[in-house]
Amino acid sequence: MSTYRAPLRDMQFVLRELAGVEEIAKLPGYEETTDVLDAILDEASTFATEVLDPINQSGDREGCTWNDGVVTTPKGFKEAYHAFAQAGWIGLPVLPEYGGQGLPQLLLGPTLEMWNGANVGFANGPLLNQGAIEAIELYANDALKQVYVPKLVSGEWSGTMCLTEPQAGSDLAQVRSTATPEGDHYRIKGQKIFITFGEHDMTPNIIHLVLARLPGAPEGTKGISMFIVPKVLVNADGSLGERNDVKCAGIEHKMGINANPTCTLNYGESGNGAIGYLVGEANRGLEYMFVMMNAARFSVGVQGLAIADRAYQHAVEYAKERIQFRDAASRDPKPVAIIKHPDVRRMLLFCKANIEAMRALAYVTAASLDYAHKATDENVRKEHKAFVELMIPVVKGWLTENAQTVCSVALQVFGGMGYVEETGIAQQYRDVRITTIYEGTTGIQALDLIGRKLIRDMGASATKVFKQISKFAKELESSENAEVKALAQPLTDATKALADTSQWIGMNAMGDLRKAFANSVPFLNFFGIVAGGWQLFRGAKIAAEKLAAGENDPYYTAKIQTATFYAHNILTQYAYLQKQIVDGSAGVIAGDDEMFEVERRALATA
Amino acid sequence: MSTYRAPLRDMQFVLRELAGVEEIAKLPGYEETTDVLDAILDEASTFATEVLDPINQSGDREGCTWNDGVVTTPKGFKEAYHAFAQAGWIGLPVLPEYGGQGLPQLLLGPTLEMWNGANVGFANGPLLNQGAIEAIELYANDALKQVYVPKLVSGEWSGTMCLTEPQAGSDLAQVRSTATPEGDHYRIKGQKIFITFGEHDMTPNIIHLVLARLPGAPEGTKGISMFIVPKVLVNADGSLGERNDVKCAGIEHKMGINANPTCTLNYGESGNGAIGYLVGEANRGLEYMFVMMNAARFSVGVQGLAIADRAYQHAVEYAKERIQFRDAASRDPKPVAIIKHPDVRRMLLFCKANIEAMRALAYVTAASLDYAHKATDENVRKEHKAFVELMIPVVKGWLTENAQTVCSVALQVFGGMGYVEETGIAQQYRDVRITTIYEGTTGIQALDLIGRKLIRDMGASATKVFKQISKFAKELESSENAEVKALAQPLTDATKALADTSQWIGMNAMGDLRKAFANSVPFLNFFGIVAGGWQLFRGAKIAAEKLAAGENDPYYTAKIQTATFYAHNILTQYAYLQKQIVDGSAGVIAGDDEMFEVERRALATA
């Protein structure tokens, strides 16, 4: 059976050495960060290991059940949610005035990672809850805030995000749910699908954030408003009143994340509509949603990383125990643990190198989120905001795509035992597959990266990043550690290739947008591979310095070996990706739709 | 819901134009091949579509049940198996003297593909059955042949292959089951796991081919013998007698292929041992198994192709129906079918190009199997045998690895609908995951390719293939079709890179075997990418000739566009793979096992 252990050593290293938590602690409001850091990581690790992990596999097996609108979560989930709330984990980034602890985003990196590594089905509750809290905190009026935020933070109630409709998935412009004004509130009608924890038995009330259209609202994205629609109406004194007209019509039978219900919610099915309250201004719902999306996309990126890490550590355990075949380098015919075999080492290193690059990039991006919000110097804020905007689609898209490959490789280490559900690794493989889909598919992330981030500022923010990486590659050049020095050339080459490819996309966007977008997903992965390598190599450089200074920690040696593997086995993809994008994009858009049908026709002469 | 349609046009093209079915029909015994070809494809397509496909999704959902040693298959499977047998499909490649049709291996390509595309859970029965028939036909004495082969071919009984034991997965040298002589038979004791259709309710008898050790047999691979162990003993008159002592102790709960039971079989649990009959000579069981393995590995490669094709065609259907977002090339704000979007086209083309390359390579390899068996000229037989030996691990390894990526990409086209089981695409994603594991993991295929095929003859067979490809690339050079001409350079470059890399591996194998094997799986994929491109480009060249000759078939235009996509978006990986193998292999084997643990340690100072 699989168990989760938080990668505390690497988390601490990335937080302290790469993401600069000490600097974050100098930002106004974050002064206590370093004082509480160790305690938070230790407590989170304990909570993840002792409370969430034990109900991970059982939650997957049991799943959720629906019965006439009532959804029952797996055994232990209700209790775990209360324990989670009571420990104060919901309020970690929420302002103290609403009952939170007001800690920086940077700390969300490791804590989110631990919840998701230990139990992704459970973690999806707090993840969406966080979005609802943020939406209300940022955009609702004070009265609404006072009613809803404290109880969402305390965990007494929970929140959801209701965006998707059958005809409106990635394309939210197609939202059709309606909101009709009635006194101080609105009447909401429509159907929302794929709503995570849209109905459950963990809290007595559920606060839905719902996108809907007001009468006469403009078509498309500019006519969508955001509403609070509680499952149970709240009386003036804050107590629970009547049931609102929102009903769960069913839950999905999914490939994974079985422990969290994915609900179809019908609003206003049996009357004038469910009662809802407008958040912020009319017709600005999608705009609000986009602001929150950075956090949600970051979170799903980390979710991918977390599941991948769980799969990897399980594969390491298995590879140490499973005995098959003799050692190719030895004359002894006795079979050895498969971790001794080069192919298994390759698979484990592939996982390790990707995971450490992913973690470094995610946490560094989280630190930038904090600077973007809190730096006192406006220029610093602006600079980090630009970096965050650029990196969020990469963190969401690349981390999750990568995570799926890592989980598949980890499963492969198990051989036949990987395919049976008993070992648990199959669950990670099934669970992780959703991460490239929800909160915007990788295709949507890539469109965002190219269309909104790269092209909009004519590549200015991207170019800045490429210059930073090239500058760092020069620093590697002068390392006294031969292995670290050898990282310079691959990073320089890859960064140049990425910069050239970005320019090629920019040039083509001025001509044929379709051609510029044709290989947008490979471009996003390209960006991730280079940016992840950059951060991993920063770690290798620091590790070499520590070793040179006499710190005899195998963690540092391993960091350099991991970076070396990444340089030759992962980063080298640049040579292929550039060719693919530059030479291959025209071919993607050539041809008609009919070409996908021809192979299934009978031969004319037959 | 997903439905399967056989890719008849492409199958016919590959059989006739690439694999040269007309030439195969000149081999002794295969004279009727071309006469029956169309009828067989049409009938197989009808059978796959009308009998197997309708119980594919229901079979997955229902799964198999175990109750005190009795296994029940999903609704309709028993009837389908009888219909399958009655239609003569089991005996397709079996000699007429045993009730078969004696058709070439080449025809197994499309028929196997159709069974597996329509219903992989079902198809696993005949696939293993085929192995059992072949083993008995090739190695057992006449008496055993007469008792078992006709009833296996008629489908009255069914067969299994019992190799794996808990401690002997990939490493069959560790087999511990025992066989003790007793008169004209043996008493078998031991446990076999992961036995496909090891117990079921489709036929009254099941014939197990079992690997076990005789008393005093040498250790390792040279002390394993093969036995026939029927579930029900057969009386002298061929009627069924007493139950043999083999019992199904349970079935696995798997991620996919739920319609076929995967059984734990206990032999001789309650007495002196199950009665078994020696096949061929003592201690040569593994050698026999290896001869049959070519066919089994070929079949699993085709299985991967088949599942990938089903996933792809389903994605095409969905992409034509699903409306989201406006066309980036148009000013019309109306949302369009997602097949219009460049990223979706890229995904569909990725699937199409890979699938057509995979199919071409598989069928061409099957044709070589026929030459290797039946050519009258010994040199021709030898030449094709060498080609087959080289290509089997590639067909098994590359096709199945590729198939998993294709299924994942196809699922991605569905967005959120891909993750719910309702659409059916999730089943392909779960089903296909086994194909890189059973009949030898990709790691085992890669070891075979490098260790047994590449290194053993000092690269002679591989070099021959590279020369053939280079020669063909030169022919492309002189094509009058500009697109086809443009395929020459990428193929030349990729083949040169592959040849250089092969040489690098050969050189290193003389020094450090571990280094030579470190990137064996990437090398196998490299080989597949180039060989698949070669065969796909052969198709493109022929298509161009047909078009030039005035045949106005969109299938040909699409073939050239598909090859062009492959050249730039898939074949270009050579630039990365060569670097990875040559520069990255040392890093794979550097470091100790401890390096995979360090990230989970707490920080010393914390």
TrEMBL record, chains A, B:
<protein>
    <recommendedName>
        <fullName>3-methylmercaptopropionyl-CoA dehydrogenase</fullName>
        <ecNumber>1.3.99.41</ecNumber>
    </recommendedName>
</protein>
<keyword id="KW-0560">Oxidoreductase</keyword>
<dbReference type="Pfam" id="PF02770">
    <property type="entry name" value="Acyl-CoA_dh_M"/>
</dbReference>
<dbReference type="InterPro" id="IPR009100">
    <property type="entry name" value="AcylCoA_DH/oxidase_NM_dom_sf"/>
</dbReference>
<dbReference type="Pfam" id="PF12806">
    <property type="entry name" value="Acyl-CoA_dh_C"/>
</dbReference>
<dbReference type="InterPro" id="IPR036250">
    <property type="entry name" value="AcylCo_DH-like_C"/>
</dbReference>
<dbReference type="GO" id="GO:0016627">
    <property type="term" value="F:oxidoreductase activity, acting on the CH-CH group of donors"/>
</dbReference>
<dbReference type="Pfam" id="PF02771">
    <property type="entry name" value="Acyl-CoA_dh_N"/>
</dbReference>
<dbReference type="GO" id="GO:0050660">
    <property type="term" value="F:flavin adenine dinucleotide binding"/>
</dbReference>
<comment type="similarity">
    <text>Belongs to the acyl-CoA dehydrogenase family.</text>
</comment>
<dbReference type="InterPro" id="IPR046373">
    <property type="entry name" value="Acyl-CoA_Oxase/DH_mid-dom_sf"/>
</dbReference>
<feature type="domain" description="Acyl-CoA oxidase/dehydrogenase middle">
    <location>
        <begin position="161"/>
        <end position="266"/>
    </location>
</feature>
<dbReference type="InterPro" id="IPR025878">
    <property type="entry name" value="Acyl-CoA_dh-like_C_dom"/>
</dbReference>
<feature type="domain" description="Acetyl-CoA dehydrogenase-like C-terminal">
    <location>
        <begin position="466"/>
        <end position="589"/>
    </location>
</feature>
<dbReference type="Pfam" id="PF00441">
    <property type="entry name" value="Acyl-CoA_dh_1"/>
</dbReference>
<feature type="domain" description="Acyl-CoA dehydrogenase/oxidase N-terminal">
    <location>
        <begin position="38"/>
        <end position="156"/>
    </location>
</feature>
<dbReference type="InterPro" id="IPR009075">
    <property type="entry name" value="AcylCo_DH/oxidase_C"/>
</dbReference>
<dbReference type="InterPro" id="IPR052166">
    <property type="entry name" value="Diverse_Acyl-CoA_DH"/>
</dbReference>
<dbReference type="InterPro" id="IPR006091">
    <property type="entry name" value="Acyl-CoA_Oxase/DH_mid-dom"/>
</dbReference>
<dbReference type="InterPro" id="IPR037069">
    <property type="entry name" value="AcylCoA_DH/ox_N_sf"/>
</dbReference>
<comment type="function">
    <text>Involved in the assimilation of dimethylsulphoniopropionate (DMSP), an important compound in the fixation of carbon in marine phytoplankton, by mediating the conversion of 3-(methylthio)propanoyl-CoA (MMPA-CoA) to 3-(methylthio)acryloyl-CoA (MTA-CoA).</text>
</comment>
<dbReference type="InterPro" id="IPR013786">
    <property type="entry name" value="AcylCoA_DH/ox_N"/>
</dbReference>
<keyword id="KW-0274">FAD</keyword>
<keyword id="KW-0285">Flavoprotein</keyword>
<feature type="domain" description="Acyl-CoA dehydrogenase/oxidase C-terminal">
    <location>
        <begin position="283"/>
        <end position="452"/>
    </location>
</feature>
